[in-house]
Structures are given as structure tokens and as C-alpha cells.
Write the C-alpha cells for this entry.
Amino acid sequence: MRMDERKQKVLAAVIQDYILTGEPVGSRTIARRYNLGVSPATIRNEMADLEEMGLLEQPHTSAGRIPSDQGYRYYVDCLMPPAYLTPEEEEYVRRRYNQKMLEIEQVLAETTRLISEMTSYAAIALGPDQGRASLEEVQVLPIQVANKALLVAVTSTGVVEHRVLTIPEGVTPEDLNRISRVLNARLQGRALEDLRQMVLSDIYQELAQHRNLVNLVRDLLQQLLSLESGERVYRNGTLNILNQPEFKDLDRVREILSFLDQDEALRRIFMTTPSTGLTIRIGQENKIEGIDKCSVVTISYAVEGKIMGKVGLLGPTRMQYSRAISVLRCVADALSQTLEQLYR
């Protein structure tokens, strides 16, 4: 879309003021707050032209203008000044990831907390696909509770799964150790999705002489087969939606919060964006029911060059886009570095 410099300055001023205040913007406000070198009447004419171009909207006859989805898109693509985190903020991000975190779930949960905290929007993250992960280690450990044991399974993507199981009376720690050795020998390196198709009779036969263990082994295998496949979804700060003036309508808030509560709905956000890089979807560009009045910004993270998942945020179209982008880029870089260390 071709636009002269004065219209660009007026559009940028309207959007920046509306992002700051959440109130429709009039020509006198622009003339007073922004040194554009033209009169309010000239600004008013430019705003009328921008409305005809579909870049601004007038919610009420006597009110000022607000940006349209198309106006935000032009601003993000052509007018938005770059933003950077301060050195102190970058150090803060690094410090948050320097905490002792041994599991990928901890890292991704911390990532969504950090994004939400630094932007005041709802933060979401998509973990690695567990269906393609393989089992690295399986342990069945005694715990200080009668007739209970802990199943611990570690996958190649760094996910650690825990299950507390009931065990038959008479099963000793030596029995549990024997089961762990057999399971590791037979299952180590197998993809989780392959476990569902494996013939498991060999495991039963190997432990058949220990009749008291057969039912326990069956329970253990059922637990392993139930490990969550697909990408796990993480979220934080969903109630930040309530702080946005655009979402004071209870029906709209209920719809968005319901959406944010559904893992499959959040997966669709990530599945409809390119697999690599940064993506910004504004308003109706989100072809998903429930968030057509929101903006979504996502970015991928990688381990040793391989894309592992995505992180992002969801907020109003009146979003501080430059701030959101700078936070996501910094966090995604720190997340990738942390996961590389964790995987090693």
C-alpha cells in the first residue's frame, strides 16, 4: 500500500497514542502531543483519508479514531520503531535461566512465567513432540510408603515422567531393581509411539519366573504406554486478559479464557504459524474462533539448529508489539541455550 510520509506519521501517532491510552484518538490530541508541524484541521483530513483506506476506524460519530487490524498490520510491517531490552533486562532473563532446572517441563514453565511477567500478556509455549521422543531410562524405585513404588521415565527430549504405583506385598527393592534392568534392556532407545506397537511378550517371559512381579510389570507397561504423546502445552498469565480495557465485556472474556484453557485450541495457534522464525497474527488474521479480537506473536526455539517447539503470547490487538517482539526474541535465545545445555 502506497502512502505519503505525512499520512504515515499521522497513522503512527494515532496507533502509538491508542496503544498507550486505550482511548479513541482525536486530531487535537495528535497536534498537541506529537510535533507533526501541521494544524489539527490538516491532521483531521489525513485521519479521514486513513479511515477511507481502511487503516483507521471511528467507533462513534463524535469520537476520535482507533486503528483497524489493517492499520496495525501496516504499522508493524512498515512504521514500528525497533525496540530492545535494556542490558539490565537481558541480564535478568539470563539470571532466570541460570536457576538449577533439570527437567524440560521446569524450563518451559519458567519460560511462560517470564514472558507473562515481562509483557503482562498471556504466555503460551509448545514443548517438543513426545511421540517422536524415545525412552532414555526407566527406573522403578522403592519409596517410604507401604506397598508403593515410583516409576520414573526419562525421554530423549529431556521430559521426566513420574508415576506412583501400588505394588504387591512381598515385592522387594531387589525385585524392583530387576524389573528396571529388564525394562531398560528391552525398551531403552525405543520411540514412545513404537511402544504401542511392540510385542511385549519377551518382557513377560523374562520375568515369568517371578510370578509376583508379572502383574506389576503389566501395570508398569500400561503406565509407560500412557505417557503423553504429542506436544505438551504450557501457559501462564491468562488472567492478564482481565487487565485490558478491550476485554471488559464478560462474554468476550469468558470466550477468551475458555480458549486459553484448551490445550488443543492452543496447539492450533502454533500449528497455523510457520515452523520457524517470528510470526505476528493480528485480529482477524487469526482464523481461529475465539481469538479474532486478539493478537498472537510466536517464535520458534531450537536445539543445535533443530526446531523443537515454539513460545508466544496472546493479548489485545492494542498490543505493544515492539516490546512483545523484543521479549520473545531474548527469551527464545536464552531458552534455546538452556535446552542445549540440558540435553547435553
Summary: The longest helix spans residues 321-343. Residues 135 and 155 are 4 Å apart (CA to CA). The first strand starts at residue 56 and ends at 57.
